[in-house]
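Translate sequence into structure tokens.
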Amino acid sequence: MPPTTYEESYPASTSVETGSVKEVILADGSRIDVSNLSLEELRALHWEQDRDFAARILAAPKRSEQRILAVRQAYETIPIIFEQKQLVAGENDTLGLKPRYPILVRKLLERQKKRNLEPSFFEIGFGSGGLLKSVIDCGCPVAGVEASQCLRDQAVAFLGPEHSDKLVVADFLSHNPDHQCQPYTLIYWNDVFEHIPPDEIEDYLAKIFDMLVPGGSLVTITPNWYNRPSDATAIYHPPRTKARGLHLKEYTLSEVCVLLRQAGFNRVEVPLFLSRNNIHLCGTGLARVKCFMEPALEWMPFRLAQILCRGLGLYCTIATK
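Result follows.
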């Protein structure tokens, strides 16, 4: 029997957007139309649902249908609440996609070409398809998996229906990529690592490792623990509060590097430094030195720790098989 995907187990969507109505299913199973809520009501709802869905996911047994469904519902509901909150506030957030990230991906694809690898790209949690568009424009074949049907629909609308068969809504660990016999050269995930239940992260990395061709790389972008909290916890709690929402675990750079090496990656590098619109690479980016010095961030003023984490690329790793 083939692995079960979201599409086979559950309805195509657990949220409804019709005209001015934006109805979502909450963690307790009730429904609410978020289209007429005030900014403060949306902020409160975002924090409440982030926290409640996180508790529901962590309480469910590993790889159980209960956990898979909780994840599915969380990532159908929270993006709509977040989008509506941004709309009411008059803000525009690209859900983690910064201009420098496509630049980084293009650099890595060019580096692979110089090493005689024929680039192929897979994104875990592709959102509305912004990064995929940049990769497609480079002439590189793409595919990806997303937990949210509404985000996948946005990505297909943005990229075009010709890409629809390569962009799926599925549980990653159950998903069998089309290129399984022809591994990918570059796999990318941005703001996904911290959303994975800690008891599953090694399984994710093992599967990613198997999906990569020898010499292929995994780009991981995840909030650094020393900048905590980076999820909805920050709406009502001060800096250096442990994340209690859908960032199920926020990691230090050292922890990420250890997990990547345990998964079998031969080389782990970080950016040397970041400028306003670019990510600069050189060697391993002093990865070991940065891991050694990282604990000092806890004793610095929080704003300075934020600047150093960003400027030194302590939230970004490139692991090569």
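Note: The radius of gyration is 19 Å.
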